[in-house]
Amino acid sequence: MARKRIVGLVLCSIGLHGIASAQTDPQSAKDVIAKFAPDLSIPDSPAAAALGITASQVVMPHDPRELAVALSNVSGARSGQGAAFDVSPMLLFAGRSYSIGEYEQSTFLRAAIRTTVGLAGGKKTIAGSDYSGTGISLSTVFLNAGDAVLDQELRKCVNDAQASSVALTAPVKFEKPDTKLGTSEVTEIPIREEDVLNDPKFAADVKRCFSRADAKNWNRSRIAAGFWTTRFDPVTPGLPKATGGNTGWLTLQYGFDGFKPLANKDVDAASRSRSFLDRLQTQGSLVLHYRYTHGASDESQIPATGGFPEVNTQFLATRFTYGSESRAAFAEISRTRQDLQGSVTGRTGGAVGGSFRISKDLWFNVAMGRREDLSVSGTTVSASFKYGTSSEPLVPSR
Amino acid sequence: MNLATPINVSASATGGADVDVKLVLFVDEEVPNEDCIQLMKDLQTGTRRCVLGPAKKGDAVLTILLAVAPLVDGQFEAEFKLTHPDLPDGSRTLRLSGDVDGDAKSIRRNIALG
Questions:
Q1: Range of the domain at B62
Q2: Is B63 exposed, middle or buried (0-12, 13-18, 19+ CB in 10 A)?
Q3: Which of B73, B89, B106 comes nearest A199 by C-beta?
């Protein structure tokens, strides 16, 4: 089979073994990721978080989408509007160049496919003046316990359903042939409607396989990390430029694996359960997020002359999420430690919010947050619509 | 067709669906022996091979039963290369293609081999 293959740095790193396996493994990594990825929700873009145009402060790991866009509006104490654009370059440009075998074998390839590049732009008020900001981010998910591509139970489930289907149609009764072997080397046989057998059990079995995998793999333990850099230009000429500095971040997400009350539910067991929460098939996750920012403008200080003084900040937050793949609520608390030329100050913050899936690819996220700040203190509310695209996953949404 | 020599089959599949297949070789409207029924799993993860027969001389009809589970988009193409000395040039290829968009489906085609 002719296969498109982009020869690049990443391909070289996969090695000859991966290339050999791809030749007998026609289904691409992109196909399988799209089909299996249960968590196609769109958390706040890291680039948007960099600009501060989100009320929520924790950057969440998520399964890759080829493309996601978000429009945010933040009102209240820290107002601003912005748009963020995230893309997974490997999925978008080279996703069909890699087979599922390569994806399974290479940790490096998995991380590369889960890497997203983000660009955000927006307006923000700094020291009482309007600024336009630009943020660029690079982030990746190094480890994903919920990577359903690697879910052997799901594969076995689909295989068992298929085996059961073909077994039940035997012994086969003779039927008059409907096609004759052609004289040419290849006989093309398009499948017609009348070739389809009535087998509702097979369809139901396969659907159940995906429902179970979907519930099992959503919101599982993950490790993500990234980097972003931002700058702010004053809308009114003459005011000093500001920068959000350079930030490195790490997010650890624990999906309560092994902790029954909050861990993922078995769909079949949940449907039989008397518990309301079990039947909702909800589960929780606990996230720890750390980031270090170097050389950011101290927005609390209105500079008399020259630019803003620069500060280094450390940010530590924890977030609890509870819900399902179509609706979830979260609460987070954070602590920021700011170092301004040896003068160290600290402040706390918090946010609550929720995400709702409106349709397959459209999400509405709302969050309300409050941060104690030196100059800007009070409640901030952000609302955002997020649209993401990916090859269509045939995971039924609940 | 003299099926004292068995038919060798190699099969593979591509597309956005998971394909398993059962092949049944009828000779003169009957399945001569157990070797004439073969199950091939996971065609989309690599090439699968099997042997149909051996059987007696007679009119051969190959029944292909596909169990297709749509994964990405339900489109599939399953290719079967049959190798036997009675076939012209020793081999022929059957290429079944379709789209089972929506639910998983079982499909059947009966092909006269001669």
A1: 7-112
A2: buried
A3: B106
Which domains are present in chain A? 26-169+186-389 (2.40.160.40)
Distance from CA of B48 to the nearest CA of A (A): 10
Q: How many domains does chain B have?
A: 1
Q: How far apart are CA A14 and CA B45, in angstroms?
A: 19
B 26-45 residues inside an 8 A Cβ radius of A: 26, 29-31, 37, 39, 41-42, 44-45
Say if B1 falls within a structural domain: no
Rounded CA separation B19/B12 (Å)? 9
Interface confidence (ipTM) of the complex: 0.95
Establish if B38 belongs to a structural domain.
yes
- Quick one: which of A59, A25, A40 has its CA closest to A225? A59
CA distances from A361 to A40, A158, A357, A385, B84 (A): 8, 25, 8, 11, 51
Per-residue pLDDT of chain A (398 residues; tens, 9 = 90+): 333 332 222 223 223 233 233 333 445 555 554 444 444 344 556 666 776 666 567 777 766 666 666 666 655 545 566 777 778 888 777 766 666 667 778 888 888 888 888 888 888 777 778 888 888 889 898 888 877 667 788 878 888 898 888 876 655 789 999 888 888 899 999 999 999 988 889 999 988 888 777 777 777 888 999 998 888 888 888 888 888 889 999 999 998 876 766 666 665 655 565 565 555 556 788 999 999 999 888 877 666 667 788 889 999 999 898 887 677 788 888 888 988 888 888 888 777 877 776 665 566 666 666 554 434 455 656 565 655 554 433 222 22
Chain A residues close to B70, C-beta within 8 Å = 394
Q: How many CB atoms lie within 10 A of CB A260?
A: 8
**Cα–Cα distance for residue pair A229/A46, rounded to 1 Å:** 10
pTM over 0.80: no
